[in-house]
From TrEMBL:
<protein>
    <submittedName>
        <fullName>Enoyl-CoA hydratase/isomerase family protein</fullName>
    </submittedName>
</protein>
<comment type="similarity">
    <text>Belongs to the enoyl-CoA hydratase/isomerase family.</text>
</comment>
<dbReference type="GO" id="GO:0016853">
    <property type="term" value="F:isomerase activity"/>
</dbReference>
<dbReference type="InterPro" id="IPR029045">
    <property type="entry name" value="ClpP/crotonase-like_dom_sf"/>
</dbReference>
<dbReference type="InterPro" id="IPR001753">
    <property type="entry name" value="Enoyl-CoA_hydra/iso"/>
</dbReference>
<dbReference type="GO" id="GO:0006635">
    <property type="term" value="P:fatty acid beta-oxidation"/>
</dbReference>
<keyword id="KW-0413">Isomerase</keyword>
<dbReference type="Pfam" id="PF00378">
    <property type="entry name" value="ECH_1"/>
</dbReference>
<dbReference type="InterPro" id="IPR018376">
    <property type="entry name" value="Enoyl-CoA_hyd/isom_CS"/>
</dbReference>
Amino acid sequence: MKTPLSDPRVTAVQDKDQFWITMDDPATKNAMDLPLVGALTQAIENAPNGIIVLTGRNGSFSSGGGLSTVAALAEQAQDDAKGVEDIVRRGGNVIEDLLFSSSTTVALIDGSCAGAGLGIALACDYRLATHRSRFITAYSKLGLPSDFGTHELLRRQIGTELADELMQSSELLGVTKALEYGLIDAVIDRTDRKGVKRALKELPPPNRKGRGVDISDVLDLEATHFARVISDPRTQLKLEKAVRKMKKARAS
């Protein structure tokens, strides 16, 4: 049964014992913007208790924060930094919903998983990836700080030293390194209900102890810092260049 949502790029379907939430925006490779985030939040909050599988189509889990969205926020921050802070903090609602969900949450990653998308994956109990999956923090490439709890959740998952290194370097990780670092739990071949079921059978129960500790405070501070950094003219120049490059690539 399909659940109606506020954004057609997100679908929610019950598949026997699993509730599948799927992002499907080929134009942006499932980049985060407010309508998409709102639909994700709606789907998670209305999901039945059980197993939630969060995934993306078109060879991408999520490419992170959309460049056009971030550039628009940078422009808004000139006159309304508080408004930008509130918008960024709203993105954190997805993270809280996942961390505090009574369901078992699974990020099924097939393709790119970057920035804010990585934060969403890290907020799940399990991360299952295919052989073509790739992971990157991406923030440093644009001179941006973390959003969606990505940096803090990365620290909790793989340790502070390695997390800080990946945030600074924006190193692109394949599944072999991601598995070695403990970023993902398993590499799978089947990206359907049976594939998820088989993988979960072979994994230990999720460790939920302290998962949501202080996360609200982290997301509050993160939003304030993001709004401050994005209002910096140097950051805006980097964003403008990146947007021009993106538009040129799409036109060619």
